[in-house]
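Lecture notes, unit on binding sites. The following record was shown on slide 14. It pairs a sequence with 6-O-phosphono-beta-D-fructofuranose.
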Amino acid sequence: VKSIAVLTSGGDSQGMNAAVRAVVRSALYNGLEVYGVQRGYQGLLNDDLRQMDLRSVGDIIQRGGTILQTARCKEFMTAEGQEKGAEVLRGRGIDGLVVIGGDGSYQGANKLSKLGIKTMVLPGTIDNDIPFTDYTIGFDTAVGIVVDAINKIRDTMSSHERSSVVEVMGRHCGDIALYAGLASGAETILVPEVPFNLTEVSQRMEANFAKGKRHSIVVVAEGAGNGHDVSSEITRGCGLEPRVTVLGHIQRGGTPTAVDRILASRLGDYAVHQLMAGDSGKACGIVRGEFLSTDIDTVVNTKKPFNLDLYELALRLSQ
Ligand code: F6P
């Protein structure tokens, strides 16, 4: 490949900018031309591309969001849209593409690969729902934000001897709830991967207060239920009236942690090297510290395994 493009797609995540920077600088370092596509696949269809130089990605490693912006694009889900996207790239002499995004973005990249564009995808989502990588870019930052919020909530819950339900993001994946729940010492973690019974949850909360606990934090992943509904069920079960906090998009903003910046930098550079080696249709990840490239087909057809050991540990430690 001589000329590549980079785009960010789907929900943004902290560290996407660090990944864009790594792709651009690694490509330039290796003598490639590199283009930034504005607004994801929508921008590709609109031919909204600009050539990037070293300065185009200056001062962004520490910024949340994505300078390339992002969009969820319906047209690109159609065969005509995909052919049009490939044509835009061919028309500009671009033969490689790096897509940074979640699983919806992976499917689009896979289609372009089948149309002859060499593509690599990087896991850019706070949800940590992508298999064949231990962590996704943005997850560490999002978990830190949730832990910080729960620390604050816990202060005021303890003063009032109250309980709280905190609803976190994650789409169909419970990892944000699991990791943040463990790191913040939450008594209850509700995730879509593990069945739960809210009557039992409320009985346990009541018993914990009776044992002298001064607060009770329930973290609920959005994929497992709605914070307000969970709170109402607990009130029905034991009379407690948990306050509800829905953290929402706060989890997706702010400066990325060093862990996310390093993950993004390593993966961005790796993706460029894989393209230069002639590979295509691959998802880049890091598993136990080692790079891994996996067929996008395999990645999108595999469910990320849930870490039950970590879940049970969180429960044991929060008694
Ligand atoms: O995939 C990232 C994510 O933040 C999910 O956790 C959440 O369900 C979804 O995106 C929210 O999407 P939107 O920003 O379109 O409301």
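Take-home: The pocket of 6-O-phosphono-beta-D-fructofuranose is lined by residues 11, 102, 125-127, 169-171, 222, 252 (CB under 6 Å).
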